[in-house]
Amino acid sequence: MPPEKPDRAGRKIFLLLVCVYFVTFGGHFYSGDGIEMARTAESLVLRADLALPKAEGERDWGYTGRDGRRYAPYPLGQSLAEAPFVGAGALLTAPLPLDDHLKMRLRHAAALSANVFISAGIGWVLYRLARRLRYDVKVSAAIALMSATATMLHVYARQDFGDPLATLALLGSALLARRWADTGARRDLVLSGVCLGASLFTKYQMAIYCPVLWLYLVLLRRERGERDERGFAGLARDTMTLALPVVLFGLGDLGVNWLKFGSFFSTGYEQESSPWAGLTHMLTGLHGFLLSPGKSVFLYNPLLLLWPFALAPFHRERRSESLLALTALGATLLFFSPLYWWHGDWAWGPRYLLPAIPFMVLQLAPLVRAVFDRAAPSRLALRRAFAVALVLAVGLNALGMSVNFFFYLRALTSQEKVHDDWNFIPGLSPVAFHAHVIVSDLQEALTGRPRDFVYRAWRDGRFVETVIPMGEYSREGKVPDFFFFKPYDTRLEQWSLGAAGLAFIGLTLVAGRALRREIAS
Length: 521
What we know:
Layout: H1 9-23, H2 32-47, E1 63-64, E2 70-71, H3 77-93, H4 100-112, H5 114-132, H6 137-149, H7 153-156, H8 163-183, H9 186-200, H10 210-224, H11 231-261, H12 282-290, H13 297-300, H14 307-317, H15 319-336, H16 357-362, H17 365-372, H18 379-402, H19 405-414, H20 419-424, H21 430-447, E3 453-459, E4 462-468, H22 491-520
Antiparallel strand pairs: 1-2, 3-4
């Protein structure tokens, strides 16, 4: 019998996604979170320190630490991931005959490119998990590519948040636990714990997934049956194997807290007011996550409109993974819904749901398989449903990538609007405004005059208008928000970065063709 052909599709998916993500790369900071994590990485690489450097005339980032200097309130995971890119950026730009502004732009882009590779890694790991669940190459590749390019993960791959790294670590933990269940190799269970601990070392909130992965461990032990040790002793042994790396990473978090703020349990966040709104706020958070016009997971990820129809068939096929996905989603909703800050703003879409989204896309596998099965009675209807969902998803992602969300939310804040306004009032939804920006830009190009954004609401017996005059709106908030394809002030920037972007387009076509051949062979 000839040896089984090596499965190289996963690596080609990774390479294709890296190219796609660079074509749509943002390349600049979007949030205070991103600035603080990148500045921490810069301090680690250039000064072997954790304190945030301060540029002249810039606001104070972070929180005051034990020594009077300021520190980021986050774990070190994202900063450590960015550190090699920060070092490479500093090393490669130093000898170039460029002005300081352009060098700084390139160094920032280098740091933020870490999320390109991290997000491409999510696609690769999801592909490996689908294959481990016995789905064929075509279905597994479709699941990975849809998760990577037809959900809001595509938008976050180009931005500066730590959520993609936390998502990659959680997904990697699930994959390695599944592999342990299939092979019995204890090393895989240890590595699963390492990945889970790494997620906690990236975002403190990832602790909510520790019981979720433990439940998955219990389900996998039941699957193993006679191949595994029965009883409490065996469960305790496996639990300790999974938990020990998590505990070590947790101790690392506590140690970093002590170094920065002088207390094991101080993160800096306590210097702000508490985000806890109470259990009575849970319905507001749930409505926001699921149905609101400004943050609904289904609005920002139209592909997931098919998710309810996949729940039953996926559960019949892969009960353990079905419960894993549902408990991961449930834990996220239950944890964040009672918080005032459930929305994760300022951000595009329901940021805190990002770790659950790849698992939800994985649950679409039975429907995807039916699309490829010529004998499936519902094949034609499913193909049409997926086509519509994918067109909507690509359109929503295009809105999220083409327009920088920051400037709109800043404009609303200057008019004394609050998060609940743009998250719950349909006319103020970021989706509506991003679409307006594109229409306004087209009108300005054709007529020379942009179209103002106007929202009218009935208040105390009269209509009150919210107007954002697009002629006065920030230029950075209107130009196409693509690092390689946007207007720059100098020809050097315009032509050199544009040429690099065209090169990535060419590489995308080559990588796509290679993946297509691999899947077809």
